[in-house]
Amino acid sequence: MSVGFKIGDRAIGHGEPCFVIAEIGVNHNGSIELAERMISAARKAGADAVKFQTFRADRLVVRDTPTAAYQKTNTGETNQHQMLSALELDARAHERLLKHCSAEDIIFLSSPFDRDSIDLLDAMDVPAFKVPSPDCVSTSYLTDMGKRGRPVILSTGMCAMEEVMTGISTLRNSGCNEIAVLHCTSCYPAPLDELHLRAIPLMQEVTSLPIGYSDHSEGIEVVLAAVALGACIIEKHFTLDRGLPGPDHRASLEPAEFAAMVKGVRIVERSLGQARKEPQPCEASSRRLGRRSLAAARDMSPGEKLSENDIILLRPGTGLAPSLEVEMIGKRLKRQVRALTLYSMGDFE
């Protein structure tokens, strides 16, 4: 059983409503006004939280680092440092976005990509930290974050299970005990046959922590499958328009699609119910009228003994249950029973 905790006023863990994060990331394209419009749209679409990325390009990447293949395809930019520099948000921008989230009644989250960014978010009193997948193996980074006394959501794209467990141990050893883990495949978009959603229940079993899913596939179907497999957090990239310039827009959902995803998540989690098999209230009428009872195959007279050929199974299920058929064979009737009517215990001596 996963050990739950709260992010803001939202309970996180198995059995709680799925916590849905709209990953704005860098889809604001460096515009605070666009970011604010995205926050409002995400709240309207049903997201519980929005998540940004907090970084300084100089603290994140060597200046001549090339862009990843998908980044180059989506932006035409070949230099990762130059691309990221245009997407930085300073402290004042963060405070403005936090204030806008508060006004919209949606939780503000961000992934810090360096220790100065951890300091900034900590000073803002964010309700949780989100670890980006590449930093699941960054020991000093995780140690610094874990000391801050805040819940941590740990993304695990590109990780082997051993690396996931090491990341969790690093956080715990630094004092963090409120941890959720997100299964993830860090491709944009991620191929369906490399998503391996069955890792979700496996990670639940191995870690005993709340397990979620950060999705980079196209569409919403995979997210719904992840929820059905037990994901209690969903993170999905969000944009106002997939046609906007930028590295992540093409792998994001637009507002109407995101709203459809959230609706689907709520339907799936409601349908999951409890791990038990028993008749449900809505089945009462069907159970009574659709099941069968022991009935007379022919007209029967007092004193006759019931044989196998004297029994037929007919609806409704309000008489003697079919499970009593063998037990009733050989019993003697004490009164007349007409063909195609239900037997009752009172018919027999």
From TrEMBL:
Q: Which GO terms describe its biological process?
A: carbohydrate biosynthetic process
> Which CDD domains is this protein grouped with?
SAF_NeuB_like
Q: Give the record's keywords alphabetically.
A: Plasmid, Transferase
Q: Does the keyword Transferase apply?
A: yes
PROSITE patterns per record: AFP_LIKE
Which GO terms fall under molecular function for this chain's record? N-acetylneuraminate synthase activity; N-acylneuraminate-9-phosphate synthase activity
Q: Which is one Pfam family of this protein?
A: NeuB
Give the SUPFAM superfamilies listed for this entry. Answer: AFP III-like domain, Aldolase
Q: Does the keyword Cell cycle apply?
A: no
Q: Under which EC number(s) is this enzyme classified?
A: 2.5.1.56
Q: Give the residue range of the signal peptide.
A: none
The record's listing under SMART domains reads: SAF
Q: Which domain of life is it from?
A: Bacteria
The record's listing under NCBIfam families reads:
NeuB_NnaB
Name of the molecule in the record = N-acetylneuraminate synthase
